[in-house]
Amino acid sequence: MIEKNYQPADIESRMSRIWEESGAFKAGRPERRDAAPFTIVIPPPNVTGSLHMGHALNNTLQDILCRFERMRGRDVLWQPGTDHAGIATQMVVERQLMERQEPGRRDLGRAKFLERVWQWKAESGDTIVNQLKRLGASCDWSRERFTMDEGLSRAVAKVFVELHREGLIYKDKRLVNWDPKLLTAISDLEVQQVEVKGSLWYLRYPIQGKNFSPDDPATFVVVATTRPETMLGDTAVAIHPENERIGHLIGQHVILPLVGRRIPIIGDDYADPEKGSGAVKITPAHDFNDFEVGKRHGLPQINVFDREGCMALVDNEDYLRGLPEGALMLAEELHNVDRFAARKKIVARLEDFGFLEKIEPNTHMVPHGDRSGVVIEPYLTDQWYVDAKTMAQPAIAAVRSGATSFVPKNWEKTYFEWMENIQPWCISRQLWWGHQIPAWYGPDGKVFVAETEDEAVGNALGYYVEQEVITPQQGREMAQDPAKREGFITRDEDVLDTWFSSGLWPFSTLGWPDETPEVKRYYPTNVLVTGWDIIFFWVARMMMMGLHFMKDAPFSTVYIHRLVRDEKGAKMSKSKGNVIDPLGVIDDFGADALRFALARGAALNHDIKLSPQLVETNRNFATKLWNACRFAEMNGCEKPDGFDPVNARETLNRWIAHETSRATREVTEAIEFYRFNDAANAIYRFVWNVYCDWYLELAKPVLMAEESAAKTETRAMIAWARDEILKLLHPFMPFITEELWAVTAKRDQLLVLAEWPRKASTVTPEQIAAMSMAGPGDPVIAPAMAALDAGDFSDPAAEAEIGWVVDLVTAIRSAKSEMNIPPATLIPLVLSGASAETKERAARWNDIVKRLARLAEITYADRPPEGAVQLLVRGEVVALPLKGVIDLSAEKARLDKEIVKADADIKRVDAKLGNEKFVANAPEEIVEEEKEKREAAVARKAKLQEALERLKMAS
């Protein structure tokens, strides 16, 4: 028995338990042993994470695909798990220690600190997993993985060692994004560009051989910089070779102000002759562009900061090299001074000596650490790198060949642009939590890379015995007693970038490097669902690693979804106060309503505008479905065993079978092509408009009549269509559909494992008729049976009749609305020049049409009466005589006025969109909002003009 009121919270907790206890989501079910596999790997959320709206969208779309394919009979593995999230997790535990006033990380030491992290993970690390379960994610939770599980750690070590052996992993001194607060290199993804109101300092660099005078421009070169504190590390000034104004200075030298070091003036295309003074300072150790210029010209790299962003000059050999005698005073004065405090001192000194020409206000983007919040420093350090350029080539080829394709396809261009210009991948992080780099160093710095410590120690000791650095006896003693080799052989303290281990996710989670049955069956995966922002960081890494180690691309399709924004199109952020918490939304409206709202908005290449009100609308849809099923139950609607809609005789019932078949085709094809919004909106329209508003409404007179064959058939058909709806809707709204499936009939099977409605092909009435007349072996039977087996039902005659009723009532209601006629007002209808077929339909459906369209009467005439508004319904004219019902002149004047307003709205938006400055500078969401306003105004104007034309014809 269906409860009177729909209560999502009660249903969701109960259904989650039923699914888990039944093992419904498990891959490799015995009955699916011979089924084709379908695999998706979850983008592993950070173990520190909490469900946000991006997670909700991403996992809803994955779940739609998994439930869809599971119902189509595939052996589905949706591989779940979490990422260890090096920086984030280490920060959480360090903050916890501080709040509890316990010893900090360095006081505890590495081993004790890592114990605390594992303890935290055991206590709190499953928060996000439980939240995903609340959303309804149908992952195989029995196979949950963590990027630091023992098996995955073994995979990481093997990959590192093999890539190092092949020369694809190496150590190098390069610039990295350095976080002076967290004291580690970070990835580009962990850097936020923040707009800052700063300054642009114009500095005078004296030309060597000329007597510097601030009043004589011929004695100096002007450079502009936003970071005057880095000038102490300048090793050149660059000018564009084609700069006619100052290009003649190329080849000369300047004297670095305050420092006194002689540095060259070089010619390089990097210097824009149209920007600033045309000359730029080159600081290879503190700017990524300058680093590349420095490589091209063989310039020295002078790092003037320490790890904490303070000046480090006194013991800095690179800085002191070539320093004129007596120039050490500045180094001592600035030593250990914070970079921003040093900036003020340096600028003041420059001004004192006449080297500061001017200062201009300058708003520019400054990189900040997304977790620490401090300004990121381009910092020159020794780090481990992957030769991403080499590894990217097969990954590029895989997409170019179509082995892997992006949906939408335009993201392939983004992928190619980045992959073809890929830089070395810095994989080392100066953290304790993570996969410690499997490299050990000997006393002379020689590195020994191995999968295990025993292997590395054995290799190292063998090497040093051979080199006669130690004796064979010492080697044996060190091998047997770790205490005796302490200080002689030490492990690299750094850990690997989390993207390194998550790049192995599609195969490490399946048991690789062992040749497990799971690797053979579920790799490669079918589709990856992810956001555009990690194409470079995760998608690219998985492509490179999968192709290198598995010799096959990790997925055949990459579906890229856009952002979830607020209802006005603004990006959600805590600072704006517009963040929508998915868990709060689920508490208020249920997980099904949130999932359906997200799916209905997930159009290709469009961000989703979401509001609690929109979710509430979809909660109302769930209530509509609930009430429709209750109506069916209260009217005794049950599907008898063996019921086949093909055998229905009533026109209305054949029509709903036809419409159900069409909805099945639309929903199935839309999901197959990743048009989630089209699929969701198709089932929404079918349930609300076709099934509830029309079919059940038109069936009421039959249900209220005496028992008859028509009534029995209608009850069965209502139940059959309801079941098909529950199947089609299940991937989007799993909780309510599973509940209704269970309570509407005695089922042997959960809906999650039920058979998907078979997609319609084209079966004509002629084929059906021919089948009934054909004898055994008749060639007409095979194609018709094949079409029926595909789940098709097509009855154009039933669609023509019921479709006419629907279109007629809809047209009358719309006309009333456009003319401002109250819905309850009874008006006459004249069928003008109606065909015999239409007259017969009108007679059969007379009472129902009059009731639904609120008509006083239906009459016939050869032509429309004077003063009647004419409507075209399926090729025939119907007329609404409105003289005396409305003031035609006043209504025309009102419509004229509304059209003028619509025109004004269109012109106002066109003026904005035609302004190049507005389009270039306005936020993307504002431009999109204006475009939507224009579309709405154009549509409104078209409807108004159509109504006006009808009135003119009536005059």
Automatic annotation (TrEMBL):
It is found in: Cytoplasm. A motif ('HIGH' region) lies at residues 45-55. One of its GO terms (cellular component) is cytosol. This is Valine--tRNA ligase. Residues 892-954 form a coiled coil. A motif ('KMSKS' region) lies at residues 571-575. It comes from Bradyrhizobium archetypum. It is an enzyme of class 6 (ligase). Pfam families: Anticodon_1, tRNA-synt_1, Val_tRNA-synt_C. One of its GO terms (molecular function) is aminoacyl-tRNA deacylase activity. Keywords: Aminoacyl-tRNA synthetase, ATP-binding, Coiled coil, Cytoplasm, Ligase, Nucleotide-binding, Protein biosynthesis. The gene is valS. It comes from the Bacteria. InterPro entries: aa-tRNA-synth_I_CS, aa-tRNA-synth_Ia, Anticodon_Ia_Val, M/V/L/I-tRNA-synth_anticd-bd, Rossmann-like_a/b/a_fold, tRNA-bd_arm, tRNAsynth_Ia_anticodon-bd, Val-tRNA_synth_C_sf. SUPFAM superfamilies: Anticodon-binding domain of a subclass of class I aminoacyl-tRNA synthetases, Nucleotidylyl transferase, tRNA-binding arm, ValRS/IleRS/LeuRS editing domain. ATP binds at residue 574.
